[in-house]
Amino acid sequence: MISQRTNMDWLLRDLAESVPQTKHVVVLSADGLRMAQYGTDTDTADRLAAACAGLQSLARAVADELPQGDGRMRMVVIEMAGGFFYLMAAGPRAYLAVLAEEGVDAGLMGQRMRDLVARIGEHLTAPARVDGPTG
């Protein structure tokens, strides 16, 4: 598990360094648990992951209102004073989140996030939680 996280951290660093103005990159599970991070401290990454869980849930509720949609959230982009926030589905029960400063190339960010998810999507999948012992 540690070697997978180290590999993921390297890939997240590659995303951050390839898109100028990138501040924080976090991989999280659907229930808001941080799985990996780059460019941020653990407390900030945990807060972002928790906020993302609520945001992806809201996006899914809105997606359910589209008659031809399948109810899945693919990407959410929020523009705010000071920068942009991106949240992208990265596999079953896993998400990739990026916080970037103003001036970020939005097209480049979207492309690099899609490329990263396509390259390592299976590694970004969060396992389902089990509430009790199995057997």
Automatic annotation (TrEMBL):
Locate the Roadblock/LAMTOR2 domain: which residues?
A: 9-100
SMART domains found in the cross-reference section: Robl_LC7 (SM00960)
Instruction: Please name the SUPFAM superfamilies in this protein's record.
Output: Roadblock/LC7 domain
- Protein name, please? Predicted regulator of Ras-like GTPase activity, Roadblock/LC7/MglB family
Species the sequence originates in: Streptacidiphilus jiangxiensis
